[in-house]
Every structure is written in structure tokens, then in C-alpha cells.
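Weekly modeling sync, notes
Attendees: AB, CL, MP (scribe)

Item 1: holo prediction request
CL wants a bound-state model with molybdenum atom before deciding which constructs to order. AB pointed out that an apo prediction alone won't tell us much about the pocket. Agreed to run with the ligand included and paste results into these notes for async review.

Input as submitted:
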Amino acid sequence: MKKVVHAACPHDCPDACGVLITVEDGKATNVQGDPTHPVTRGFLCAKVTKYLDRVYAPDRLLYPMRRVAPKGQGNGDASDFVRITWDDAFAEITTRLKKISSDFGSEAVLPYSYGGTLGVLNNTGMAHRFFYRLGASQLDRTICATAGGDALLTVLGKKMGTEPEQFSESKYIIAWGANIHGANVHLWPFIEEARRKGAKLIVIDPYKTRTARLADWYLPINPGTDVALALGMMHVIINENLHDADYISKYTLGFEQLKERVQAYPPERVAQWTGIAAADIVKLAREYATVRPAVIRVNYGVQRAQNGGMAVRAITMLPCITGSWKEVGGGLQLSTSGSFPLDKQAVERPDLMLSSPLGRPARMVNMSELGQALTKLDDPPVKAIFVYNSNPAAVAPNYTDVRRGFLRPDLFTVVHDQFFTDTTHYADIVLPATTFFEHKDLQTAYGHYYLQVSHQAISPLGECRSNQDLFRELAQRMGFTEECFRQSDDAMIDEALGQPGSRAASDPDGRLGGITRERLEREGHIRLELGDGPFLPFARGGFPTPSGKAELYSASLKQQGLEPIASFIPPEESRHTDRAKQFPLELLSRKADNFLNTTFTNIESVKKMEQPDLLEIHTADAARRGIREGDWVRVFNDRGEVRLRAHVNGAVQPGVLAARLNSARFSPDGKSINALTSETLTDIGRGATFYSCLVEVEPAGT
Ligand SMILES: Nc1nc2c(c(=O)[nH]1)N[C@H]1C(S)=C(S)[C@@H](COP(=O)(O)OP(=O)(O)OC[C@H]3O[C@@H](n4cnc5c(=O)[nH]c(N)nc54)[C@H](O)[C@@H]3O)O[C@H]1N2
Ligand SMILES: Nc1nc2c(c(=O)[nH]1)N[C@H]1C(S)=C(S)[C@@H](COP(=O)(O)OP(=O)(O)OC[C@H]3O[C@@H](n4cnc5c(=O)[nH]c(N)nc54)[C@H](O)[C@@H]3O)O[C@H]1N2
Ligand code: SF4
Ligand SMILES: [Mo]
């Protein structure tokens, strides 16, 4: 029997595509983009196009297993483990978690999860309920987006922005630290449509991405200097009277202070920091303010610098002073995630912390400081780590300390995943997880405004369990008697959506309108209730900030001891500081266009599209060090070193190096690129600073 099932891609990607899976006799035989989804438009990215290879990969983890090889040794695959039953696995996990909780307190247990799936249920759902009820440490999920996200909130009050469809109406499009072809490919057709109608595409990025190569104007910027560029643009716009005085006076707060501040950022000065010529800064500012409508796609790349919060704050002020929010095809998009008014409390149940043995909210542990958490944290120390939806042994900063932590013989490590990963290499128990083909979920997005239901297309492979099923069962085995641990997935989707008519608390603006699970199941995707026609979130102000205005001056930042407007403070690890005398090169350990963080790194057909072992370097920097194209090089600083192959291709400017995030186990020396990055946090949002990283490089010999 043949059927076509509607699903939604849950990978950590703004596009959240509608997916059609063909199933024949219980086996998935085809996968394609949903042609009726207005943003997916019938195509998938190159990696998910190969998804059958991932679901049916020969190395899928299919059974629970217990380690027999010493941690961190062995082959890193099934041969390091013996197969056990789910009953054995549950028995061992519950015994260990109970013992650790009674010996050290429940906060000695740490959940660790991030973006494996962004499905509402399998991303948080039962797992959150479980760890809240257990009284485990809470994980502060900062590794990706909190610097920019929190900064955006200080200006706009909500994570909302220009809908992707409106980019086709723009005349001036700035991709600011946004690798659209690599990480957000479904925005591209709208940009192409705009360009056919005469729009210009400008790319601001220290790395010459494919998007930059296709742009009308590419501005390579020194890493971590975006806040200076945005302030410099505002210097020109305000002093040349190109701002929208009416919009500013009605809907913004703090313009006078901003006007005073930008005087310290004349283009000549900004040029010295950013490496962009003063004349270009003036031209960019004038064009941005006068060629209308102009839209900014800023992505999370800019906020992985130490001053990344201030960068996003300053960039977000631009459409507020030009009044560009008023225009169809204007405004700015960082994320649309704040517009999905689901009932998070009902799904996650943080109130269960009060019924835990602690009887209070548990301590927070910052996931961007995992190395410290596993090697230094005390009172209590972390004695058990439960990893799902994540591969921390590769993606967390400061790999050396993270690995040292995972190697601790007294640390009990459980990993739930679809594959053996860098992290299962340290796991005592591994548990097999379903892919999105094998379970149901509710899907939001951070790059558009459509809500979707993702149907289960096939039965779980082997003995795989979804995150929902795992934590539902584990709660029973721990003896948690609360009714919420028996709830079905459908009941949880209903709770997330709330009852039409009684949604007031989580959905004050009525954005869920008449959306119900039944309707989603029938229709696949439904646009949030944003009114008819193009959605202009801030055309008439309505900023949900404390003042109700776009806050160019933020009293709440000031209260936290932070700069209330924005100012440029160079990252400690950048060419502008003393540390650069010792380690003079700025390393961007970027995402691979055809992997998704470390997901897909083991899939042969996807691997063929990538060359993850390259170090991209400018000719001048290579020549000075006697490095030639294709040479093996040693990239190092005082935290660690990695081996890569030099590639001189014009992608980076002098002083900048670029490398790819990859699985540690598939990299030339078996180490993560994060052996070089630090646990220093961002100015706003406690985020990781992957892109503020100074290194030196030398030929490695053979
Ligand atoms: N193919 C693919 N798609 C992905 C991912 C992936 O790994 N691969 N990851 C997903 C995830 S987790 C996320 S968070 C999103 C992220 O999506 P993006 O934010 O677009 O991705 P990044 O690669 O982090 O950064 C974007 C660009 O910022 C540039 N950049 C670095 N430093 C600076 C700087 O100081 N200033 C400026 N102006 N630019 C800078 C980088 O060179 C990069 O080209 O993408 C998602 N989609
Ligand atoms: N150097 C450097 N480091 C970085 C970044 C960078 O740009 N440079 N980017 C950072 C960013 S933005 C992010 S978001 C993080 C990403 O960090 P992670 O979210 O840890 O991303 P992945 O490495 O893709 O690991 C996700 C894992 O979840 C598994 N998984 C998928 N679906 C499921 C499921 O349903 N259940 C379970 N149990 N597991 C599942 C996948 O198989 C995979 O092993 O990395 C960060 N690290
Ligand atoms: S990873 Fe992104 S672009 Fe690729 S199918 Fe999933 S949502 Fe779409
Ligand atoms: Mo991310």
C-alpha cells in the first residue's frame, strides 16, 4: 500500500519545512518538500533531500546498550558496547539516578539537550516535566541564540520580524551575518524575486559565503565589529537627517541619547575597526535609508562574538530610526519564534519543581560552560549527565575541559540519540531514538509564521523510542505518580494549543485564532492569525517593551550594569587587543553548509558534498608562515590545537581564518574544532563566544 504523509522538518533551522514522505508497505520510499507550503515551495535543502539515507543508515542506533570498553577508548561504535533490554536500561538508570539524588541531592543530575529536534513535544515536553519533577539542575540553554535573542528583546520586546514572503517586495536587502544559501535557503527564492524586480543584495560577513559571491555588493567586515558599523551607519543617517522623525517621536524611546552616542562613531573611525572604507560606510548608510523598502536579515552569526548582544541591539535600531517597519518589504528579521503563542507552561510544567525533593526551583547550569560544570562545579558536583537532542562532546566550547569532564569515571552518562556520536563515546548507557519519520509532533518555526503538525510516517526502527516515549516511561519507573506523565502526545498538542475561546493567558493577541489539532492534521500547515495581507508587526509601534516603545535607550540594561544604548567594546579575543600579539589570527569555526552542526556528518551521501577538514587562510597570512595550498597545518592557542589542511581560496581577509564545525571523530586528529574556543560568555544573554577566538597557525609537517 502506498500513501503520502505530511511531516515537518524538525532540525535546528529557521525554515521548518513542510515535508511529504511517501510510504510503501511500511517503508519510506521518497521525501520531498511540500509544494503547498508558502515558504518551503516544494523543495528541501541538499541534506534533507538525502534523508532516507539517514533514516535507514546502516549505523542507526537500534537497541539500548551498555558500555564495556573504557570511556573515550575503543572504536566509538557498537563494538564498545553490549546490547541490553529496555528493562535493564531503565533499571540501571533509575537505580543510579535515585542513588545519586540521595547521596548528593537531585541537583547532581544535569540534563543536557539542545536542537536535535525542535518539535514542541520532543524538544521539551515530557523530558522537561521529568527533570523538573526529579529536581535536577536546570540547563540554561544559551549555546546558540540567547545573546542575540535577549538583545532583540531589549529593543523590540518580542522575537518577531519581517515575514520571509515580504522579502520579494524589498528594494534593498542586507544579509548581515546571515549565510542564507547555507543556513536559510528557503529565503533565497524571495530574494531572487526581489532582485528580478531591481532590488540590490548587500552581504556583510567576514567570510565570503556563497550568498556573498552572488551579492550585488559584498562588504567583508572584521569579526566582532558590527556594533561599530551599525552605530557608524546611524551617525550618517541621523546627521544627514535621513531618519524618520515622525516614527521616532511616536514609537521610540531614547533617540536623543542615541543621537549623542553616535557622534563618537564617525565613518573614518568606524573604518579603522571594521576594515570597511569610510566612503563605503557612508554609501551603505545613505542607500539603506533612502532606497525603500529596505530590509535586514540579520542572523545569529553576529552574536557569537563577545559583544554580540550589543551588535544585535545596534543593528535592530536601524529600522526603528528609518521607520522601515511601516513598509511592506521593510523591517528586520532575526527570529519569528516569539509569535507562536503556545502554552509552554502546560507543555513543560515548571511547577513540578515544587513537587520535587527540592521543593524549590533547582539551580541553573549554563550549557555554554559545560567544561566548568563537569570539572569544577561543586555543591553538589555533577554526578550524572543525561544527554538527548545534542552532541556536547563536539559542539560545546572548550572541548579539552568538556572531554576531561566526560572522562571522569565517577560521572554517570546516559545518551539518547539516533546514532553513535562524539558524546556516546563517553556514555555508560546509550538509548536509541526515533527520527521525525517515526513519531508525531507539533512544529513552530523561527524563520516564518506557519504552525504545522508532523505526522508519524513509519513505525519506529528496531527498539527506538521518541524522547516523549522515553521520558514518559522513565517517569513511571521512577515512581512519579502525577497524571501528566501518562498524557498522550495528542493530549499534549491540545494543551499546547489551548482551547479556542479560553486561550487568553498565553495568547493575548489571539494569534492561534481557530487553530486546533484537528485542523492542523487536515491542513498540514496554518499561518498564525496575523490579520489579512502582509504582516507588519511594528508599523504603528506596539512594541511589547516595558515602555511600549522601541527602546533605543534601555533602562533595564542599565539596571543590570550594562550599557543602556550601545557602544563598541572589542572582544577580548580580537585583533584590537593585546592577546593578538601572541595569537594574531581571528578564527571563525563556522557551520558547514551541508551538515547541520554535527548532524549528517556520518551520512556518506551528505559527506560527499563537504570538505570539513579545511582551514581557509588568506594568501598573505599563509605566505608569511611558509604555508602552501593543501599543506597540513597546526592551528593552536593556549587552550588546544587541531590539525587541518590549508586552503587559500579568497574566502577570508588577512587576519581571519575559517574552519568548519564537524564531528570530533570524523576530523583529522579526532578532536573538535572547539578545542580552540573558550567558555567566555557574551555581553548579553550568557551565550557562547565561538567566533571570538584568537589562534596562531604553523605548518604541521607531514
Ligand atoms: N546548512 C546548515 N544550516 C544550518 C546550520 C548548520 O550547521 N548548517 N545550523 C543551524 C543553526 S543551529 C543556526 S543557529 C542557524 C544559524 O544561522 P546563521 O546565523 O546564518 O549561521 P552562522 O554560520 O552562525 O553565521 C552566519 C554568518 O555569520 C558570519 N559571521 C561570523 N562572525 C561574524 C561577525 O562578527 N560579523 C558578521 N557580520 N558576520 C559574522 C559567518 O561567517 C556566517 O557566514 O543555522 C541553522 N541552519
Ligand atoms: N565551533 C562552533 N561550535 C558551535 C557552533 C558553531 O557555529 N561553531 N554552533 C553552535 C550552535 S548555534 C548550536 S545550535 C549548537 C548545536 O548543538 P546540538 O544541538 O548539540 O547539535 P548537533 O551537533 O546537530 O547534535 C544534535 C544531536 O541530536 C540528535 N537528535 C536528533 N533528533 C533527535 C531526537 O528526536 N531525539 C534525540 N534524543 N536525539 C535527536 C542528532 O542525531 C544529533 O546527534 O552547536 C554550537 N556549537
Ligand atoms: S534543514 Fe532546514 S532547509 Fe533543510 S529541510 Fe529542514 S527545515 Fe528545510
Ligand atoms: Mo544554533
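Recorded for review: The pocket of MGD (ligand 1) is lined by residues 12-13, 115, 144, 176-179, 182-183, 204-207, 209, 221, 223-224, 226, 299-302, 304-305, 588, 590-593, 595-597, 691 (CB under 6 Å).
Action items: CL to compare against the apo run; MP to circulate these notes.
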